[in-house]
């Protein structure tokens, strides 16, 4: 069970200002989470291999195949500024 001081310490580390009601609410919630973690810690997982994802699917994406593109006029129709069928933007990097 997490005590009030631990909740206040965590809140200070996270730079959170908590009311008294929130301190009590978070104390209860954090205690509940830790109780659930204790139950999970008891599970025998010795025969389970570690996974990066819950699904064993390796690739669910379609093949990347080239296709027709939109004409420049359609792509630049809403561009605020354009020049020679290119989107014109302000310089980001300046040479010194």
Folded structure, characterized:
The structure is a single chain. The protein is mainly alpha-helical and 96 residues long. The chain has a domain at 1-38: Glu-tRNAGln amidotransferase C subunit, N-terminal domain (Histone, subunit A), CATH 1.10.20.60. Helices cover 38% and strands 4% of the residues. It has helices at 4-13, 20-41, 72-75; strands at 82-83, 86-87. It has a two-stranded antiparallel sheet with strand order 1-2. α1 (4-13) crosses α2. The protein is flat. The termini are far apart. The relative contact order is 0.07. The mean pLDDT is 89.
Quick structural gist:
By secondary structure, the protein is mainly alpha-helical. The chain has helices at residues 4-13, 20-41, 72-75; strands at residues 82-83, 86-87. A two-stranded antiparallel sheet has the order 1-2.
Blueprint (SSEs and pairs):
Elements: H1 4-13, H2 20-41, H3 72-75, E1 82-83, E2 86-87
Structural class: mainly alpha
Under CATH, the topology of one domain can be stated as: Histone, subunit A
The first-level CATH class of one domain is given as Mainly Alpha
- Beta-strand percent range: under 5%
Gross morphology is: flat
Radius of gyration: 28 Å
The largest sheet, given as strand count, sense and whether it forms a barrel, is: 2 strands, antiparallel
Relevant CATH superfamily of one domain: Glu-tRNAGln amidotransferase C subunit, N-terminal domain
Mean pLDDT: 89
User: Low-confidence stretches at least 5 residues in length (pLDDT < 50)?
Assistant: none
Secondary structure: helix percent: 25-40%
What is the level-2 CATH architecture name of one domain?
Answer: Orthogonal Bundle
- Report the count of strand segments: 2
Alpha carbon gap, first and last residue: 60 Å
Order of helices and strands: HHHEE
Number of helices: 3
Strand order of the largest sheet: 1-2
Enzyme class: ligase
Family: Belongs to the GatC family.
Catalytic activity: L-aspartyl-tRNA(Asn) + L-glutamine + ATP + H2O = L-asparaginyl-tRNA(Asn) + L-glutamate + ADP + phosphate + 2 H(+); L-glutamyl-tRNA(Gln) + L-glutamine + ATP + H2O = L-glutaminyl-tRNA(Gln) + L-glutamate + ADP + phosphate + H(+)
Pfam family, one: GatC
């Amino acid at each position: 069970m997490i005590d009030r001081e631990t909740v206040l310490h965590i809140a200070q580390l996270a730079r959170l200002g908590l009311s008294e009601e929130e301190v009590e609410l978070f104390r209860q919630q954090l205690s509940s989470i830790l109780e659930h973690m204790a139950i999970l810690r008891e599970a025998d997982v010795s025969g389970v291999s570690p996974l990066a994802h819950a699904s064993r699917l390796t690739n669910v994406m379609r093949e990347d195949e080239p296709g027709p593109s939109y004409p420049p006029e359609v792509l630049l129709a809403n561009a605020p500024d354009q020049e020679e069928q290119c989107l014109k933007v302000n310089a980001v990097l300046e040479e010194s």
